[in-house]
């Protein structure tokens, strides 16, 4: 009965219905545009290379193969790059979340000494930076070149994420903190037992942003790393996809050049799928926090 009354009260005009219809059409087109390349890459990674090149996508099971994935996991550079990327992305995320949450909460406190100074300082850093060469010189002077820390530490704290965290913390009622202080809780206990449990949405969103950003990054590794054993997966894929360099161990030496190119094409698609798996696995667990967290900036 209540639902029928609500439906009766919601009476969209013709213009509203037209707008909703157009939005549904546009969103459906966007879904199709995004989905088709993903399906093409996924199906291409399971197709025999000669079928993929000559006929394109085939749904005949007789043309399917997992040889591309077998060759990927047999090759040391891709497997090593995969685990390097997990290490870099996880370390980068932990550092980013730790310092962003601590700094964001500090800036949300009204009686913080020098709050205005620190806010202006961070805002200036958001719009102006030293550039690539000064950053490289700083990394070199700290002895971080050719180490995992050169990938994890620089750029771990983003000012925009810091402002997003501060905005979220300012939305937490001060009455909760005052009630905890009356019960004898210290500032540290308030932060750990009250603030952090309430900050799960923003923490998960910031973690997702940091992990995805670092997982897809390769430029820093090009600049700071010389040891190929430290290369992240994206840098290994860059050599395969852009420079078309496939390691000799992935393709037998006796194969003809044409056959090598066909197998290289199959390895490209398989590598893209493998590189996308961690993000596809992560997102469903973060989805329930994502919408609530990203809306923080628009509500303030």
Brief digest:
With 300 residues, the protein is mostly helical. The protein has 16 helices and no strands.
Please give a structural write-up.
This is Sugar ABC transporter permease. Keywords: Cell membrane, Membrane, Transmembrane, Transmembrane helix, Transport. Its main location: membrane. The chain has 300 residues and is mainly α. The chain folds into two domains: 2-63, no CATH class; 67-299, MetI-like fold. It is 73% helix and 0% strand. It contains 16 helices and no strands. The protein has helices at 2-9, 14-44, 49-54, 67-74, 76-108, 115-127, 132-141, 149-152, 159-170, 174-182, 187-198, 200-215, 219-224, 233-241, 257-294, 296-299. Helix 14 packs across helix 15. The longest helix is centred in the C-terminal third of the chain and has 38 residues, at 257-294. It starts with a helix and ends with a helix. The model is unreliable at 4-9 and 252-256 (pLDDT under 50).
The total count of helices amounts to 16
Beginning-to-end CA distance, first to last residue? 37 Å
> Taking all residues together, what is the mean pLDDT?
80
Number of strands: 0
Membrane topology: Multi-pass membrane protein
Family: Belongs to the binding-protein-dependent transport system permease family.
Keywords: Cell membrane, Membrane, Transmembrane, Transmembrane helix, Transport
Organism: Anaerobacillus alkalilacustris
